Amino acid sequence: MAIDETNPRLGCGRSIDEVWATINQPPTAHENGCAPCRTARGSLAKLAEAARTLRDNDAEDPSLQPHHAVKDAIMNLARAEVRRGNRLPVFQSGQGGITISEQAITSVIWFGTDALPGVRGRRCRVHADPATADALRPAGTAGISVDLRIAVASDTDIPGTAELLRQRIITMITGHVGLNAGTVNITVEDFYDV
Amino acid sequence: MSEHPLEARLISSDLIADLAARTALDTPGVLRLEPTLKNLLIHLGKGTLQNLRRAETRTTPARHDGVFVTVHHGIADVQLDIATDIAFAALNVAQAVREQITRTVSHTGLTPGRIDISVLAIEHPPTAATARPPTPL
């Protein structure tokens, strides 16, 4: 039988690591009845208490707190990453690929939407074309679909405006993003001036 | 055989990151590199390690916002996060950046590995009179 000399064992055969792993839990029936385990738990409990005290002191020590500028920088970037949304894969090759964030594409759509009189963009989601989403694709062949929800002025010709908006979005995505907007779903969900 | 040993020269990932950042910023249509949480945490990690090792220098470790480079076995992998000018097609700009970085890495003697580009923002350039931030979602 091989003896692991690097891992100290108690008289009962248990390793000290096994006792340490459950030091924050109540003693088991074995540990209550085993003298070596009781002794080990007693010693390790002091060590656990010391470690806890050090950890708590560090957590409250003002000199160990991150500078507010560091916290602000982390939170600003975290919020920015949430706003960016998913990164849509638009080009893949064996030597790497290109992704474009949902927010980047959406910002182009907002430029097109807000420039149209009588239309106010409300919500927009962009999805990679599911037909080619997981396939390797050369540049310029990736497609996306757009779900856009808008509010319009009450005197708006809704079918005509929606078609104009659809063509504008397709043109802008082709010109400013370099992708093909195969599907642009537009939902008019409200009149903003009623 | 020369009595003088050859001097070893090391091309570090920081150097590649610097070259990749400059190459990207020189590419028409690239407005800036976009910092990410990953970059910041790596930067903070480097600073913390430096403090823990009680490094003599107090200088900030080289920081390359928006660039993440790994060099292994003579191959350089580059990840770059950029913002592009709305006057250009973002996909074409990203493709041009990939090609330029591949060329730049080749010139260092390393083999270009995966060159991944993420376009995180498409905006008007800040100097344009009509520039305005995109409407938040």
Provide a short characterization of the protein structure.
The complex is a heterodimer of chains A (194) and B (137). With 194 residues, chain A is an alpha+beta fold.
Provide structural commentary.
Chain A has helices at 16-21, 29-33, 35-60, 68-84, 102-114, 158-177, and strands at 87-93, 96-101, 119-128, 143-152, 180-191. Chain A has 194 residues and is of the alpha+beta class. Chain A folds into two domains: 16-62; 85-191, Cation efflux protein, cytoplasmic domain (Alpha-Beta Plaits). A three-stranded mixed sheet of chain A has the order 3-4-5, covered by helices on one side. In chain A, strands 1-2 form a two-stranded antiparallel ribbon. In chain A, a hairpin with a 2-residue loop joins strand 1 (87-93) and strand 2. Chain B has a domain at 13-35 and 64-123: Alpha-Beta Plaits (2-Layer Sandwich). Chain B contains three helices and four strands, in the order H-E-H-E-E-H-E. With 137 residues, chain B is α+β, with helices and mostly antiparallel strands. Chain B is globular, with a radius of gyration of 18 Å. In chain B, strands 1, 2, 3 and 4 form a four-stranded mixed sheet that branches. The chains are: A alpha+beta (194), B alpha+beta (137). Chain A binds chain B through residues 70, 73-74, 77-78, 81, 83-85, 87, 90-91, 95-101, 103-108, 110-111, 114, 121, 123-124, 139-140, 142, 174-179, and chain B through 35-37, 40-41, 44, 77-78, 83-84, 86-92, 94-95, 98, 102, 112-123, 134-137. Strand 2 of chain A pairs parallel with strand 4 (111-123) of chain B.
